[in-house]
Design goal:
The structure holds 2 protein chains of 2 kinds.
Chain A lengths: L1 E3 L1 H15 L3 E5 L15 H5 L4 E3 L4 H13 L3 E5 L10 H8 L2 H4 L9 E6 L14 H5 L5 E3 L4 H13 L4 E6 L8 E3 L12 E4 L4 E5 L3 H14 L4 E5 L2 E3 L3 H11 L2 E8 L4 H13 L8 E5 L10 H4 L3 H12 L2
Helix pairs in contact in A: 1-7, 3-4, 8-12, 9-10
Chain B lengths: L6 H7 L3 H26 L13 H10 L5 E3 L5 H7 L3 H8 L24 H15 L5 E6 L6 H13 L3 E7 L2 E2 L2 E2 H4 L15 E6 L3 H16 L5 E6 L18 H8 L3 H11 L5 H23 L19 H14 L6
Parallel strand pairs in B: 1-2, 2-3, 3-7, 6-7
Antiparallel strand pairs in B: 4-5
Helix pairs in contact in B: 2-3, 2-4, 2-11, 2-12, 3-4, 3-9, 5-12, 6-7
The chains are: A alpha/beta, B alpha/beta.
Chain lengths: 325, 345
């Protein structure tokens, strides 16, 4: 077992998958010789050759559209989009085709692929490099949306995504790509898609977060502890499908809930989770479910990005609002 | 119009008289199908339909030049070539009747579900061709498009990928002069569609799309080239749709009737009929027999469409995911409780 950071864990996951299954190929801009702008595919072309780790022309719709053709003909493409902020030219392909191939062909064709996209702000990148568009894809039936927050989960979820027969949008929290290391098993293991994880047990409030926001939420939980509030922090890990059972069980235990995300608050995934809790655990609630999200403004230039995304202070404020209702 | 075709190759590909008769029978079958489909829409038996009358030569010629193992990535107007490639006519009627079975080609019929968004199927054809190249298969993939599609980004991205990776893919453009109401001159500032290929290092050829033999030879040539590792080709088949874009459109709003009439005189069906008569292999008797046969074939497909059992409600959910998430299972249960399973009622 090695201690790896999140990006190393992803590289390791890709390597394991490519060794095990020769249908797997990686394609995207700069993924080959350069190893990707974040080095997620470093060393893979040297090991697997330029036919399986393919530098493509600069064309997001082309990358995803070609992956549709590859997938329906039995390959397992892993297209990389350099940044989630660059996913928009490919949205038509994802929404009109990737997500619908199975349904439209009534199972005659399937479109298994793992679309990797680093998401979220916090790395001082230029404009349009730091969006959190997960709600768009959660809203689109036919897709699964996965968002790890740790190296162990990143590798395990990636390998599970590669085994899935449904297409997966795999959002990688670029802010924590290299933030910390943890033990990551060698070889193959999976973390099942669709299962949230209680990463910190608590009794007063359930806090739901994913990806970039998880560690900030854990910091906020420490602040809350100083107030005597034991916050349970749940890492959703999979955003579509949501792990309804774990979410509701946690709320039934604590009676209060807060959702934290980096994406703009309005019509974000937090709204869906609030609705889900209303439908499934209303009578357990001691207070309205709170939301802490990014402000409803476009992802700002980086001089302002720390203000945009929730930090521990803002999350603590959200916790206090729910606790003091 | 067509260039870059090696004469020797073209001669080798020349079709026999029997094949020519077969092509003719297909062309009138497609035309009869198309006219019946328009009437079915008018009488409310199917939904909005996209007619192809006028483009039979382009489609039948293309279909005859391909092998059964080749893959088609069609748009919503490729009924003719799809039928020639093996798609049951009833399936096409079912599609326009809004039924999910209409999207499915039977096993062994290599046709991908119709793409409705413009040009989006072209990167798919590129990916499929890429897969055959990786596997060393002797397969050609054809992406179909109209002239309007050449303005979309996906067209350019697909052409570029095909050129860069030298893929066994054909882009078969039926330039019928209009994208709904917008004429070619407002679609592109280039003289032809074919010349766009040069920008991607792809060969482009332009062919008279109302000449079934010219289309056949062009597609055969390009497919042979692709099979032998020679890479992609953009084929522009110049043709015309006699009717509207769809049954929801009225082409008299944007086209002069003398323009339509002028194109009718170039009708590929009439041209082929004259050739057959000149060769002494066609007669009025064979002509009426051919239309009667076409009518029986089309009627059988219509009967099959009209007598299809009610759609199984489970089809709403069963194929959305390989592994149905719990919330969809819950929604399916709710649907069954409220509406039953459908099918057979």
């Amino acid at each position: 077992m090695a201690r790896l950071n999140l990006i190393q864990a992803i590289t390791d996951g890709l390597r394991v998958a490519m060794r095990e299954d020769e249908r797997v190929l990686v394609l995207g801009e700069d993924v080959g010789v350069n190893g990707g702008v974040f080095r997620a595919t470093e060393g893979l072309q040297a090991e697997f050759g330029s036919e399986r780790v393919v530098d493509t022309p600069l064309a997001e719709a082309g990358i995803i559209g070609a992956s549709v053709g590859l997938a329906v003909q039995g390959m397992r493409p892993v297209p990389e989009l350099q940044f989630a902020g660059f996913i928009y030219p490919a949205v038509e392909q994802i929404v009109c085709h990737v997500s619908r191939v199975r349904m439209r062909s009534q199972g005659r064709f399937s479109c298994p692929m793992v679309i990797r996209a680093p998401y979220g702000g916090g790395i001082r990148a230029p404009e349009l490099h730091g969006d959190s568009p997960e709600a768009f894809f959660v809203h689109q039936p036919g897709l699964q949306v996965v968002c790890p927050s740790s190296p162990y989960d990143a590798k395990g979820l990636l390998l599970a995504a590669l085994e899935a027969d449904d297409p997966v949008i795999f959002f990688e929290p670029m802010r924590i790509y290299r933030a910390f290391k943890e033990e990551v098993p060698d070889g193959h293991y999976t973390v099942p898609i669709g299962q949230a994880k209680v990463v910190r047990a608590g009794t007063h409030l359930s806090l739901f977060a994913w990806g970039t926001m998880l560690r900030v939420s854990l910091e906020a939980a420490e602040l809350a502890k100083q107030q005597g509030w034991e916050v349970e922090v749940v890492d959703l890990r999979t955003l579509s499908p949501l792990d309804r059972d774990t979410i509701l069980a946690s709320v039934e235990k604590t009676g209060r809930a807060l959702v934290v995300h980096e994406a703009p608050k309005t019509a974000g995934l937090g709204a869906e989770i609030v609705a889900l809790i209303n439908e499934g655990a209303l009578l357990s609630l001691e207070a309205p479910v709170g939301r802490v999200g990014g402000y409803d403004v476009p992802q700002p230039l980086f001089a302002l990005e720390d203000l945009h995304a929730p930090d521990a202070l803002r999350i603590m404020h959200g916790i206090a609002n729910v606790m003091n209702f | 119009m067509m260039n870059r075709i090696d004469q020797e190759q073209a001669d080798a590909n020349t079709v026999s008289t029997d094949q020519l008769i077969d092509m003719y029978r297909w062309m009138i079958t497609v035309r009869h199908f198309d006219r019946r489909a328009v009437h079915l829409q008018r009488s409310g038996r199917i939904g909005t339909y996209a007619p192809l009358e006028g483009q039979e030569a382009a489609q039948v010629g293309c279909g005859f030049a391909l092998e059964k193992r080749d893959w088609l990535f069609p748009t919503y107007r490729e009924h003719g070539v799809s039928m020639v490639h093996g798609l049951p006519m009833a399936t096409i009627f079912l599609y326009w009747n809004g039924r999910p079975e209409g999207c499915i080609s039977p096993r062994g019929v290599n046709i991908f579900p119709i793409a409705v968004p413009i040009a989006t199927q072209l990167p798919h054809a590129v990916g499929a061709a890429w897969a055959s190249k990786l596997r060393g298969e002797d397969t050609v993939t054809v992406g179909f498009l109209g002239d309007g599609a050449t303005s979309e980004g996906d067209f350019h991205e697909a052409m570029n990928f095909a050129g860069v990776f030298k893929l066994p893919v054909l882009f078969f453009c039926q330039n019928n002069g209009y994208a709904i109401s917008v004429p070619l001159a407002k679609q592109t500032a280039t003289e032809t569609i074919a010349e766009k290929a040069a920008a991607y290092g792809v060969e482009g050829i332009r062919v008279d799309g109302n000449d079934v033999l010219a289309v056949y030879e062009a597609v055969k040539w390009a497919a042979d080239k692709a099979r032998s590792g020679g890479g992609p080709t953009l084929i522009e088949a110049v043709t015309y749709r006699f009717g509207s874009h769809t049954t929801a459109d009225d082409h008299t709003r944007y086209r002069a009737s003398d323009e339509v009439e002028a194109w009718r005189e170039k009708d590929g069906i009439e041209r082929l009929r004259r050739t057959l008569v000149e060769r002494g292999v066609w007669s009025d008797e064979l002509e009426s027999d051919a239309w009667e046969r076409a009518d029986r074939t089309v009627q059988r497909a219509i009967d099959e469409m009209l007598s299809a059992p009610p759609v199984d409600h489970n089809r709403l959910f069963d194929y959305a995911y390989a592994k149905l998430p719990q919330q969809l299972q819950d929604q399916r249960e709710e649907m069954r409780t409220l509406y039953g399973d459908g099918g057979g009622k």
